[in-house]
Amino acid sequence: MSAVREITTLDRVELTEPVGDVPAGARGGVLELRDGGMAMLEITSLPQEPVLDRIVVAPLTKLRLVG
């Protein structure tokens, strides 16, 4: 049986659910972990759009690790 690794700083992750205006499936990197099971992310997979925040805070439960 394989062990599941916890998400940590600098991991590449994907949103499994939308967060604010950022859709599910968006990918980015974890900038920092916060109290309460939250992570600050820089979204890097979306095209440059001035109305879309590229830094979001999301619950760890809405993230999955990507390779």
Describe this structure in words.
The chain has 67 residues and is mainly beta. The chain has one domain (12-65). The protein has strands at 12-15, 27-34, 38-43, 55-59, 63-65. Strands 4-3-2-1-5 form a 5-stranded antiparallel β-sheet, with no helix packed on it. A hairpin with a 3-residue loop joins strand 2 (27-34) and strand 3 (38-43). The protein is globular and about 35 Å long. The mean pLDDT is 88.
How does the SSE layout of this entry go?
Layout: E1 12-15, E2 27-34, E3 38-43, E4 55-59, E5 63-65
Antiparallel strand pairs: 1-2, 1-5, 2-3, 3-4
List keywords for this structure.
single chain, mainly beta, about 70 residues
Global morphology = globular
Query: Which secondary-structure class do the elements indicate?
Result: mainly beta
Alpha carbon gap, first and last residue: 20 Å
What average pLDDT do the residues reach? 88
Total strands: the figure is: 5
Main β-sheet, spatial strand arrangement: 4-3-2-1-5
Largest sheet: 5 strands, antiparallel
Helical content (DSSP H or I, runs of 4+): under 10%
Radius of gyration: 12 Å
